[in-house]
Amino acid sequence: MKKVVIATKNKGKAKDFEVIFGPLGYEVVTMFDVAPDMEIEETGTTFEENAILKAETLSKALNLLVIADDSGLMIDALNGEPGVYSARYAGDHDDAANIEKVLKNLQGVPGAERTARFGCCLAITGPDYPTQTVFGTCEGIILEERRGDNGFGYDPIFYVPEKGLTMAQMSPAEKGAISHRGNALKLLQEKINL
Ligand SMILES: O=P(O)(O)OP(=O)(O)OP(=O)(O)OC[C@H]1O[C@@H](n2cnc3c(O)ncnc32)[C@H](O)[C@@H]1O
Ligand SMILES: [Mg+2]
Predict the structure, then answer these.
(1) Which of 5, 8, 13, 54 gets mutated to test ligand 1 (max ligand atoms within 8 A of its CB)?
(2) What percentage of residues in the chain have a pLDDT greater than 90?
(3) Beta bridge mates, 65
(4) Is 126 within any annotated ligand binding site?
(5) Could you read off the pLDDT of 75-123 as tens digits, one per residue?
(6) Residue 91 annotated as binding?
(7) 181 in the Ramachandran plot: left (φ > 0), alpha (ψ -120 to 50) or beta?
(8) Residue 117: which CATH number?
(9) Distance 150 CA to ligand 2 centre (A)
């Protein structure tokens, strides 16, 4: 089986990638498999800077073609927060605490003003392979309470009107078909031959 290396330590993301790459005949390999002790500090101020940083750091260390994902949630009523800082919005990398903080900051904001979008930048790079990036989005509404147990991160409070479901109520395949990550991967496939 062909392998694709993803510069991530997020098991939820890895699952999202498996659902999309599996049918293309790829086994997904993450940093847990190839560089468990490596920590890449995300010092960029944009998704693109951080995606490139993660992809290039791991690619140089392994001398292999690598894809990285830097993503996050942008909430209009919070001026685009948590944005690039989505993973550590409440301090630690704690999904439950991050959701609590969002819900608290949106208290009293009516439904029509709870619009938001997920964004995902994918960077691909390798030895003798110029770095390229794509950006995918997915529009939604932030609910007042959690719904569903699938997915990761902010999925339980991110409602997608076209589906009538939160991302945590979708199957992994349903999420992949409409998500920022799925949309970014479609753009990547258009650019290069995966
Ligand atoms: O950097 P890696 O190791 O890939 O893992 P990470 O979780 O730190 O990833 P990011 O730095 O890209 O931060 C993205 C955060 O944005 C949120 N997020 C991104 N995609 C999401 C999705 O599909 N569903 C829910 N939350 C998501 C979630 O809180 C993530 O931790
Ligand atoms: Mg990260």
Answers:
(1) 13
(2) 94
(3) none
(4) no
(5) 999 999 999 999 999 998 999 999 999 999 999 999 999 999 999 999 9
(6) no
(7) alpha
(8) 3.90.950.10
(9) 20
Print the domain residue range for 47.
2-191
3 state SS of 34: helix
How confident is the model at residue 192, as a pLDDT? 87
Give the closest ligand to the alpha carbon of residue 10.
1
Report the nearest-CA residue for atom 2 of ligand 1: 8
Number of domains in the chain: 1
pLDDT tops 90 at residue 36: yes
E strands, the chain, in order: 2-6, 26-29, 66-75, 115-126, 129-142, 158-160, 165-166
In ligand 1, the atom with minimum distance to the C-alpha of 93 is 31
Which ligand lies nearest the alpha carbon of 31?
Answer: 1
154 is in an annotated binding site: yes
